[in-house]
Amino acid sequence: MEMPTFERPMPVKTPTSAPFWDGLAEHRVVIQYSPSSGSYVFYPRVRAPGTLANDLEWREISGMGTLYSFTVARRPVGPHFADAVPQLLAIVEWDEGPRVTTELVNVEPGDIRIGMRVRPVFCDYPEHDVTMLRYEPADRGEEPR
């Protein structure tokens, strides 16, 4: 009996998150900044955390960061990911402050270290009109522009 195949779920762009996804499509990392708190904000939202100010603006960041945490998922997290194990699930702390959940690519599980420098990898899925943000060790090449 052949196992059924599942199409992986893809993110859905909303009016609030559109600038983030549009930036990724251009291979740029664009997140919100709150002048009232003097800090970058991620995940996209309509009010600044802490101050609830309506002052969020979109700014490009380098996308460079440090590996904050990770896990190696040797069993699929769901049937949609049965062909994608092991998955290297990670939390990256951007140089600008916020943290993002992501996946590590172009690295062996045994070579992953908390605190390692990482750089963005833009994975385009044109059939879904989406670009996903992944990360690889920064020593894989030049820092992004």
Descriptive report:
The chain has two domains: 15-61, no CATH class; 63-140, Beta Barrel (OB fold (Dihydrolipoamide Acetyltransferase, E2P)), CATH 2.40.50. Helix content is 6%, strand content 37%. It is built from one helix and eight strands, in the order H-E-E-E-E-E-E-E-E. It is globular and about 55 Å long. The mean pLDDT is 91.
Give descriptors for this structure.
single chain, 145 residues, mainly beta, OB fold (Dihydrolipoamide Acetyltransferase, E2P), five-stranded antiparallel β-sheet, three-stranded antiparallel β-sheet, 1 helix, 8 strands, NA-bd_OB-fold, ChsH2_C
Brief summary:
Residues 58-122 form the ChsH2 C-terminal OB-fold domain. The chain is mostly beta strands and 145 residues long.
SSE order and pairing:
Blueprint: H1 18-25, E1 29-34, E2 39-41, E3 57-61, E4 65-73, E5 87-94, E6 99-103, E7 117-125, E8 130-137
Antiparallel strand pairs: 1-2, 1-3, 4-5, 4-7, 5-6, 7-8
Tally the beta strands. Answer: 8
Unreliable stretches, pLDDT < 50, 5 or more residues?
A: none
Instruction: Give the amount of beta strand, in percent.
Output: 35-45%
- Please tell me the total number of domains: 2
What is the first-to-last residue Cα distance? 49 Å
Morphology call: globular
CATH topology of the largest domain: OB fold (Dihydrolipoamide Acetyltransferase, E2P)
Number of helices: 1
Tell me the structural class. Answer: mainly beta
CATH architecture of the largest domain: Beta Barrel
What pattern of helices and strands is seen along the backbone? HEEEEEEEE
Cross-sheet strand order for the largest sheet = 6-5-4-7-8
